[in-house]
Amino acid sequence: MNDELLQRLAKKRNLIDQMEIPSTAGNSVPLNYHSPSAEVKAWLTAKGFSQRTGQSLGVLNAAQLFSLNNEELCRVCPLEGESVYMQILGQKSLLEDVHKVSELEMVREK
């Protein structure tokens, strides 16, 4: 029984090792609060969102996109709204980290 369990676990481990998980880390399109709608659309496309989501939200500039909450995004994009919201949270967090680093550099220079 233990041998059978070990064999099953080994098979699952091999399957997991063989899986390809697409990464969006390499396709980073910069997006900040001053980004125009064209950059928003490019960012959404780079993140792998559908053409429909890109068209729906790509008319907004980044400040407008960042101001939307989860509920509003889900109303506009029922299938991908929550995923877009999570990506926005990540992007906003990244921008805050960059801002903190630049503030630290300014303090250090003084």
TrEMBL record:
Segments forming domain SAM: 27-88
InterPro entries associated with the record: EPS8-like (IPR039801), SAM/pointed_sf (IPR013761), SAM_3 (IPR041418)
Gene3D superfamilies: Transcription Factor, Ets-1
One Pfam family it belongs to: SAM_3
UniProt protein name: SAM domain-containing protein
Organism listed in the record: Ameca splendens
Lineage: Eukaryota, Metazoa, Chordata, Craniata, Vertebrata
